[in-house]
Amino acid sequence: MKRDLGDLALFGGHASFLQQIHVGRPNRIDRARLFDRLSWALDNEWLTNNGPLAREFEERVADMVGVGNCVATCNATVALQLLAHATELTGEVIMPSLTFAATAHAVRWLGLEPVFCDIDPRTGCLDHVAVAAAITPRTSAVFGVHLWGRPCDVDALEKVTADAGLRLFFDAAHAIGCTSQGRPVGRFGHAEVFSFHATKVVNAFEGGAIVTDDDDLAHRVRSLANFGFGLHSPSAAGGTNAKMSEASAAMGLTSLDAFPEVARHNQANYEQYCGELARIPGLSVIDFAPDERHNYQYVIVEIDPDVTGLHRDLLVDLLRAENVVAQRYFSPACHQLEPYRSRQQFQLPHTERLSARVLALPTGSAISREDIRRVCNIVRLAVSRGFELTARWQQQPGPDGQSVVAPG
Ligand code: T4K
Catalytic center at which residues (predicted)? Predict the structure, then answer.
């Protein structure tokens, strides 16, 4: 355990971990089951195009969510595009800026204009009052994002969009297995999108899914994901190839089998982080509503630089020097990224404040109790002596022999 600033790898000490530990390591699955499924697919000589494993995966996800339709896709980014395309969105799409670039890029790729709205600072998700104020005659839809698995205020967003006659979709990339007011995420708005990327709590190597109770919409996205074949009225763009392969479905099914155990492990990780990082002024682990279900996929820590004397970016660099690959989820926010930054100015004070203060710490089934103890030891040492650490780091000679300048 590290006791002094000089023990930190940033100042020449040994790294706490010999190998990197990550936020997004794929969770453990039953390999024998995966190989059985892959072997079955090979024997079956059917490898993609709405195969039996993909259909089984769709049924499992639809049952889990309690929704009429699930269309599995090759990833979530394309699934968002399919939804926008299938519903013929035009003009502007309102969304949060505090999200992964995929949410914004998906609609921009179709020639739509993302309009970034501020968040409710208590949840990190879209503020429905800001959404109502951002609606213009050019708005065709709102995309909410259940950030870090914490659901949006779905009732408020449903009301705002229904009053304005707009489509409402949710990017639920982080939120499989979570609930809002006891109802599973996946059942809100006109449709929701899950991600099954390798780094997600349920993974299909790469994968996504659209879930909806709208049968016609499901039929349209399924057809568009298969080159537009089977559509009564052909889409102007024809369609694309967004199908989930049988190999991905085999992984997705095996990962779904493991999900209850992974979620339990993640919850224990989360609770350990909360315990070990409690009562540190200026540092908090973001919380989850106690009466809802969560997947605890991300452990997000918020750091106040004024109280701790330590900027989030310096904490991330310091952790990375220890081989703890913390992530800035999500910073910069989308409106601070190109191609959005130079197109339009957005006033998003809550987004900018939170985006500059949060980081994700390693969790998932690869992370042990001892790993968390060691990560928290580093964080506690750094944060409790944040002013001194920052001053010392500023004195460090940079590559040109000059002292380095602290971020932010
Ligand atoms: N909407 C939202 C809100 C999202 O967060 C995302 C994706 C999407 C939409 C789009 O979903 P997909 O189209 O991807 O289905 C990662 C993921 O790649 C990305 O899927 C995810 N969100 C985002 C939050 O995280 P990056 O750029 O942070 O890093 P990446 O994928 O290179 O790796 C993250 C960490 O995981 C690294 O520390 C290394 C580790 N890792 C990664 C892979 C791929 C592993 O240990 N093993 C692996 O196989 O995006």
Answer: 200
